[in-house]
């Protein structure tokens, strides 16, 4: 069977507090994108993982392998899996590539092994793999809280185009959180972002988007700050780093600006993609 693993961006990411276990309580507005990896998953005689991306680890560190091990133990599965991944989501980008693959694998095992898991069951599995996996399982625009496990989906009509640009440097999620200065960083208003989306107020939306983690990512790599300034100067209405970076997304409703920018940024950056929100 073929399963899609959609990327995400955070239109709003507010880090509320640091917890005793080192994780952070968050409030976020997350949206899935049309950009996706494709997983081919079949029952097999032994486990096999392949990918067209030579950078992706194929060992027990891969989120897909971690899902297989965890679900095999939890449900005493005898089955083995052949998995082939067509990778389109760049790594260390803040687009949840590894988490999206993990979520797709949970859905695939559920179907191939006839487990009939509820979304709550899947989220319990997913959050053991990573904080972004619960959102990737639900795969709908949502207000997300806790460390990423509380998902409240909502619908909206506001339409816009998105240009994704990633510099060659990546950002480690763990380091971005460790370096964060909660007193200095931005604390954007997620309820306001949700309201602008639902009121179809694109200009207002672009004023409200924000990400607490930009503060530490900008200190970790100047490339992200430089890219954000370039996209803003190009004329995009809203520009923000996604997640812990290093990918920056730029929003516009102007198709000709979008096409010109795509050609321009492609000459200077290794990953440039046009996409939209998957509603
Ligand atoms: C930045 C985001 O992508 C925003 O959606 C997520 O918060 C990160 O999600 P993720 O990559 O799935 O995160 P995990 O793989 O669970 O954790 C990676 C590291 O990020 C930090 N982390 C993650 C989530 C969270 N709420 N607080 C944290 O402090 C922890 O140091 C952890 O060691
Ligand atoms: N299935 C996978 N796809 C991509 N990377 C994976 C996968 N499994 C493990 N990894 C490892 O995880 C690291 C981070 O990759 P990922 O694409 O998930 O980062 P990210 O974009 O920062 O995600 P997030 O937005 O969730 O923080 C990679 O450098 C890679 O070594």
UniProtKB/TrEMBL annotation:
Catalytic center at which residues?
Answer: 8, 132
Q: Where is the GHMP kinase N-terminal domain?
A: 62-138
The GO terms describing molecular function are: 4-(cytidine 5'-diphospho)-2-C-methyl-D-erythritol kinase activity
Q: Does the keyword Nucleotide-binding apply?
A: yes
Tell me which Gene3D superfamilies the record gives. 3.30.230.10, GHMP kinase, C-terminal domain
Task: Name the chemical reaction catalysed here.
Answer: 4-CDP-2-C-methyl-D-erythritol + ATP = 4-CDP-2-C-methyl-D-erythritol 2-phosphate + ADP + H(+)
**What are the binding positions for ATP in this chain?**
90-100
Keyword entries, A-Z = ATP-binding, Isoprene biosynthesis, Kinase, Nucleotide-binding, Transferase
* Domain GHMP kinase C-terminal as annotated: residue spans: 196-270
Tell me which domain of life the UniProt entry assigns to the organism this sequence originates from: Bacteria
Per the record, the pathway is: Isoprenoid biosynthesis; isopentenyl diphosphate biosynthesis via DXP pathway; isopentenyl diphosphate from 1-deoxy-D-xylulose 5-phosphate: step 3/6
Pfam name, any one: GHMP_kinases_C
- The Enzyme Commission number assigned here is 2.7.1.148
* Leader sequence residues: none
Q: Which PANTHER family match?
A: 4-DIPHOSPHOCYTIDYL-2-C-METHYL-D-ERYTHRITOL KINASE, CHLOROPLASTIC
Q: Which family does it belong to?
A: Belongs to the GHMP kinase family. IspE subfamily.
In UniProt terms, what function does this protein have? Catalyzes the phosphorylation of the position 2 hydroxy group of 4-diphosphocytidyl-2C-methyl-D-erythritol.
What is the protein name stated in its UniProt record?
A: 4-diphosphocytidyl-2-C-methyl-D-erythritol kinase
- Read off the lineage from the record: Bacteria, Bacillati, Bacillota, Erysipelotrichia, Erysipelotrichales
- Gene that encodes the chain: ispE
